[in-house]
Give the backbone structure.
Amino acid sequence: MLALQEAFDGHDTFYFCYDADTTRRLPNVYLVPNMARNPIEFLKNLWRVHRIFKKERPDMVVSTGAEIAIPVVLIANLFGIPTVYIECGAQVTHPSVTGRLMYWLADSFYVQWPELLKAYGPRAIFRGSLIDEDAPIPNDRSAEKRLKVSLVQPSQTEAFSSDQPPMGSAYIASVLEQHGCDVRVVDANVEKLSPNEVVRLLAQQRPDVVCFSVTTPLFPSTMNIARQLKTFTTPPILIAGGPHATVLPDDFLNDGLFDYVVRGEGEKTIGELIERIIEGGTSEGIQGLSWQQDGATIHNPDRPLSMDFAEFAYPDWSLFPLKRYGSLARRHDLSLPITTSRGCPFGCSFCYKGVYGRKLRMRTPEQVVDEWEFLVNRYALREVAVLDDVFSFDIPRALAICRLLIERGLDRVPWSTTNGIRVDNATPELFQAMKRAGCYRVYFGIESGVQGIIDSLHKNITLEQVRFAVTEAKKAGLEVGGYFMLGNVGETVADMDKSIDFALALNLDYAQFSIATPYPGTEMFEQISKNGKLWINSWEDLATYGTGVFSAGDVTPEVVGRYFRKAIRKFYFRPRYALRQLRELFTWTGFRHRTLASWLLIKLAVLGGRRKVSLAKPNRRADV
Amino acid sequence: MIYVTVGTMFLDFPRLILKMDEIARDTGERVIIQTGLGTTFPQHCEHFDFKPRDEIMDIQREARLVVCHAGIGSVLDVLEVLRPMLVVPRLKKFNEHMTDHQLDVARAVEKRGWGRMILDMNDLPDACVAPPPVPASYKPAKHRLIVAVRDTIDRVAARR
């Protein structure tokens, strides 16, 4: 405990521990006799702790064991006081009795050896240790030179926010750690923090640098937070990255709010930038960086995409609030994503390619399965999600990955391809191999049931290919989900009906309908800018779910919204569909997911997640 | 000089103490044994039950080899001075400890290249002649854990 003293700097502390020579010397200490497994002493300690807590009114409890933690944490739970439990260093592979209890009772549960993670489960975290070493940090530095960096994922204030682990930020977090930074992550989406609450948290963290990962709908809330951060007595350096920052860097830099924008694939750029910030010097020559000098914005040349995945450290998920991630679309509460390739060579009009580009860069099967194995062991995962845009572009590579998964016994951990694989990159043999390797569900990007619309999206697939892929995947024993978009450019109500009917006819297990949304930097955005009207008041409105956001023909945004609700009703509220889901209700997770999913679907279908869109001022590109 | 430590455990560890005594007798090398709360004492070695930590660390710095039970505190002390280390886990079946968790610690020590695990006492004489290599450096990831705890504290403070 004393080794952790530094963590309590600036806060009042008191100790509660067994009476011993070493503990007698502690300041503000409550000493009790060793209780071991004596039930009378245990009850006495409950009473003692209760009295002490009433007097001291602690805001938080940290314990390193052993059984003395039990009465303390029990009383803390009763008082609603957050608790942190750090498992004793002597437990390497076998849980302690106290640890088993604390796993469920404590709010945060840390182990000091990675070997112990598996024995406890996904709630246990290995993030540093008083004993064990970590992977060496290539650019480590002394305490006074370490930068404190907070990585912020701003929240969408109203729309259905993401509950997915943010992959891009996790890679960046690792890069920052490799450069010897103290990294903290604030994921406002899953932590349910408003912009003001994020600011309050950052005021406590007092970071030197704050990095934002910004997609277009998050722009207003990012700027809101940034503005407040700059009023701090020592304002942090602000860096923005992500899709929106890549397309419109000037929006971040022009009023002098942000110091830097990292454009495109950010790993190398942010690494070089951090070195410059620490060592001093100008930002000239850092490719992919936009910055401010004497009130002028300077855009350094683009950085070429990195061709080698091996140069990036694995995403460090231990920094993220893992307990809070979950998806109704998966079997288990926690699944972490893996990226086996970056970039996509196809030219779909709705897809933004500014960050990872159109050049497909694939990791070798060995590299992929090495990380897969690490993920499963390090985070005690029960499920993995493959996040690629085109996992099976190179079918022999996909087959080799499946083969390696089986060889290393990883086929016991279920996985799915959540971002969809292309129906034209699929063979019956691949589906069978995926099934054998533990895959339980594939998603396909289908987009529409009308060939003309698919063609206009430059999706470059045929309805025939869709039917073939869905049939073969089902034959291989995989569940099949389909992604559809409604309200595409030039789409009529008859077309939307056809898409809904197509989804039904394919006999899919899941269908995700979304409303076509033109994000800046996509071809679709250019089309709307030229020949349509964007019905938004602020970038935030792009994340709307209940209604369309543009018109480029006869169909109004309201009609698109109606068809969106109709699609959900027709697909999910079928007796046949409900029956098929019945068997899922027999597991607790299945039951919980189905109940939550039903509620979400009802909300979407009936209320439509409607957001008031002011139709009086169409096509206004507001800044906030 | 070889330093041997059995920690602060209340159970005896005669297996290690008697074998080291034998080695001291056979080789004539100076062996110092910390015997703790145990009741087995060597005849051919210097021995003591407890000493202040800084004195212990001085002895360890002088030693060409440390033979220790697989208690986490003892292991950390050896790592702090970076000396060749043989770890001998106290086992439940010999009534040396209440659980076999020291076996896990010893395995972890060996896996990380911090020292060598000795299960069979007959391996001990040879292991003392050819001690295992010392790791180039030892730097526990303590700072990371401090940042993690600090992070939780900040979250609580921000909510107030």
